[in-house]
Amino acid sequence: MKLAVINEISENRSNAQLLALRFAAPLYERGEPVPEEYTHSLWISADGLALGPSCSKSTAATRVDFMDPTLLYRLRTSGKRQGIGKAVGLDKATGISVLDATAGLGKDSLVLAYLGCEIQMLEKSPVIHALLEDGLRRAQEAHDESLGSTLQRMQLFQCDARAWFAEIEHGSRPKPDVIYLDPMFPERSKSASVKKDMALLQNLLEAERDFPGLLAAARKVAIHRVVVKRPGNKPGKDVPAPTFIVPGKSAHFEIYVNSSFSSIR
What residues contact 139, with CB distance under 8 A and at least 6 apart? Predict the structure, then answer.
């Protein structure tokens, strides 16, 4: 991926310059042609930061939108009945600390924070991290009362999960109750059934070459459990059998239990 930055807000040029400097990318103003050598652009507009092809900012552009009506409806209607809540242990305890080690576009982190978990989000991609950072900022500036406490329970870090796990193991970071992993297992595909955001993430992020190793590292440092999100109902391969599984319509959760929640809260 070769990245350019496109600014559509004239009074925002100084921030656009900082973003371009951050990614060592050229800056173009609205209407300026972008050379074909740049495959992707970060678009700065009134709707927030978006990533998409340099040739167009149409429907292919992706942004983090924590105020999306569909997402907010999911939060307000499903509650703890969602499989993800049971997967992390909300049927056993409250105030659970969750390390979302593969944050992606942050939707699962938002759901867990809304359900009362304390969330640390790790994202190793600088570009996806910038989208998350912008999405959190816009959500905070919206001053939505129902989301205020949710956003306060979310912390974002740019870091590779393995490095973070190593710091936990060495005692320089506290252990989380739960580690959540969503490594986007679906194979790369041009099928229309692959959602736009998922396709973008799969193209942008390097595939996890050693998921068994990542899972093993997570299990060493999580206090109570590690949760792995997988598509559909197909079980994971090349990894130990989970302690139990929480089924779902579009995805299921494989849970590896280290200890019971009975000793806390």
Answer: 66, 67, 147, 151
Tell me which residue of 34, 87, 72 sits closest to 225, measured CA to CA: 87
Q: Length of the chain, please?
A: 265
Query: What is the C-alpha separation between 73 and 176, in angstroms, rounded?
Result: 28
Can you state the angle between helices 211-221 and 161-169, rounded to 10 degrees? 30
Non-local (6+) Cβ contacts of 101 within 8 A are 122, 161, 164, 165, 179, 180, 181, 218
Nearest of 239, 233, 224, 223 to residue 253 by alpha carbon? 233
Judged against a pLDDT cut of 50, whether residue 220 lies above it is answered with yes
* Highest-pLDDT range among 114-118, 200-204, 248-252: 114-118
H helix and E strand count, the chain: 9, 11
**CA 207, 165, 85 angle in degrees (round to 5)?**
80
